[in-house]
Every structure is written in C-alpha cells, then in structure tokens.
Amino acid sequence: MTATTAAEAMAAGIRKTVPDVIVDCCPIADGGEGTLAALTMAIPGDLRRVIVSGPLGDPVEAAFATFAEGWFAVVESAAAAGLQLIPEQNRDPEKTSSRGVGELIAAACAAAPRKIIVGVGGSATNDGGCGMAQALGVCFFDRNGDEIRTPICGGMLSNISRIDMTSRLPALSNIEMIVACDVRNPLTGPDGAANVYAPQKGATADQVARLDAGLAHLARLVRRDLDMDIEERPGSGAAGGLGGGLAAFTGASIASGINTVLEAVDFDLRVRSCDLCLTGEGQIDAQSASGKACMGVAQAAGKHGVPTIALVGAVGSGAEQCLAAGLHEYVVIGEGLPAELSMRQASVLIADAAGQVAKDFLRPNPG
User: Fold this and answer.
1) What average pLDDT score do residues 269-297 get?
2) N or C: which end of the chain has fewer CB within 10 A?
3) Cα separation, 6 vs 293, whole angstroms
4) Mind listing the domains of the chain with CATH numbers?
5) CA–CA distance from 45 to each of 27, 48, 124, 126 (Å)?
C-alpha cells in the first residue's frame, strides 16, 4: 500500500468508530518510491510532469513538485530510474543509467526553487550518478580523450578517465541540493552499493565485482578531479551510488530521508497538538529501529509527549527494540490471517485496526 492509501484507510476507520474525532492525514515516506505522492497529499504543492529518459533509455513520464510557493522542489529518482520501470527479466545494472534523474533535476532547476530534495530509493541503476551528471552538463572523457556522449551506465564506469565540471548547469550553484535516503551504505566495499543492492537489481556475482570496481574507479577520479572523497561517505552507496554522485556533481548534502520528509511536511508543528499518532510498517523488526519511517515518526511525536502506535502486517525478530526506541505500541492487522489474505484485505484491516485503536485509546480509564 502507498502511504496515502494507508493514511486514508486509517482515517476512515477512525471516523467510523469515533465520528467526532479530528484526524490529520499526513502520509510520509523516507525518500524512496512514493515520496512525491505522500508529500503532495500532506502539503499543498504544484505537480509538474515531464518526459525523461528511463533507466534503459526509453522515454518515460515522470514528475516533480514545487512547494511553499516554489521555495523548494522535490524530485523522486525512482520516477525516472526506478526498478519498477523494468520488467524483471530485463534488469541489468550494467546497462541502466540515471540520466533521466538528471533530466528531472534540470526541469526542477528551471522552476527556480531555492532548494531541491532528491529522494533516491528504489533505483535500477549502479552508475554512481554519472548518467544523472551528464544530463546536468558534467562531461566525462574516455582514455582516448574523447567525450562520452552516450548515457553512462554501470558497465561503463571503468572507461572514464577524466571528469570536467566546466559546463555544469549554472543554476545548480544557487540551489541547495539535499539527498533524502534511508541507508548509510558507503559507495564501495562489502557494504557498498554494488555488493548490497546490485543483486536485487539483477546482477550476477561477476557483475557485482565489476560494478564495485567501477565505483571504486569513479571514486578515485572524483578525488583527483573534484578534490572530494565520496567513497566512505555514509549514504554515498544509496541508489547505486547516486547518493555519492549527487554529492560530487551537484554539491548535495546527504540527509536522513524520513527526517527530511518530516521537516518538509511540518510534522513537528502538526503533531504537537495531537493526542495520538498512528503510523504503519509492513513488518516491524530490529531493522525498523534503525532509521525506518515508522520510528522517525514515533521519535518526532515523542518529543511532544504524543504516543505513537504502529499498525503492522507482521512482527519479526527484535521488534521489541522499537518499543525501547520510542514506539508506544504496535498492533498486527488481521492477526492470525495468512499473509496473502492479509495483503489482499489490507485497506479494510487497517481501517478496522485504526478504529479499534482509537476507541481503546479514548475509552475512559476505570480508575
């Protein structure tokens, strides 16, 4: 379910059970797929659609949005280079490029915002953001000194011999760039972009080794030509190295995805007047306690003494860590149902669970 669908289901269930309650729907995301949709429901924005290059070069329709009267814009990289754009049998991170992300950023720059937030989750690429950079005017040269004009993909990184930023889009110098991501992986190595995420994008073991070597080569060039070290920077490995590429080629800072989104939707101000906060998670477990959206919500609400209850599909190992980290409680929707059935009926189950949680929370204490 999207964050928007889940929030609407929760609201419907609460209003059915306790009709006089005031509900503020504030769908959120952590920078990955669905971030733009969540933000445009949570706050007023101007959605703009453009045609850009897809991860395999085919044209795709993508969108960005401006908010706060154009003060900031949000770009979701998955809209231009997401894994969902490629049939499973055609996925190959040696052949995919982030060029469309750069085209989307260029379109956002034309709207003249003061800040652009780029959500980088869910990508099909492993090109270190070089394809993106090409679309923004950064030039890459091969060993013969010729400019590489075809969109750079993951399998081409080792062919680059020089980077030239002279022709980079001038507007970038006046725009604050922020990478919103929920991972802390470095660019290379055992925990890097290729080793951790490339297999999910269709890479074989041999391809993973080549992709990691290509990113290491790119990191050396960035150190030499741009005087910047992105190889070990936390978050550089996000989206196949797009996090590091945005830092190197646009000067972006890398920030927590959930915290960036919560700030954008003015969550701190909205939650402080509430009695109860509801959020959701597919499966709550030990990983949820490490930067996941539900815990970002719980901790932000907790600063104002507002308890947060998570409606979850399943409970995994270490879920109790979330309670220790600030979550008030978690409730399993459709407890006892097979997972497939629970997923098919998710909207109804979430609505029922939210209504019951609100009713129990508002029930007078007998003492």
Assistant:
1) 90
2) C
3) 14
4) 3-24+274-362 (3.40.50.10350), 35-258 (3.90.1510.10)
5) 14, 10, 27, 31
User: How crowded is residue 24: how many other Cβ atoms within 10 Å of its Cβ?
Assistant: 13
Beta partners for residue 315, in sequence order: 284
pLDDT in tens, 116-138: 999 998 899 999 999 999 999 99
* 37: nearest Cα among 61, 63, 12, 9: 63
Structure confidence at residue 291 (pLDDT): 66
**pTM of the predicted model, to two decimals?**
0.89
92-104 confidence digits (pLDDT tens):
999 999 999 999 9
Tokens 């890097």 belong to 192
Locus of tokens 């000067």: 251
Torsion of CA 128, 237, 81, 262, to 10 degrees: -130
Enter the tokens of residue 57: 């070069």
Q: Which residue is associated with the tokens 């897809």? A: 54
Going from the C-alpha of 294 to that of each of 11, 12, 217, 313, 330, the distances in angstroms are 17, 20, 37, 13, 10
Q: How many residues can be counted in the chain? A: 367
Distance (Å, whole) CA 140 – CA 183: 28
Extract the tokens encoding 147. Answer: 């400019």
Question: Which two structure tokens, joined as six digits, stand for 225?
Answer: 């030509």
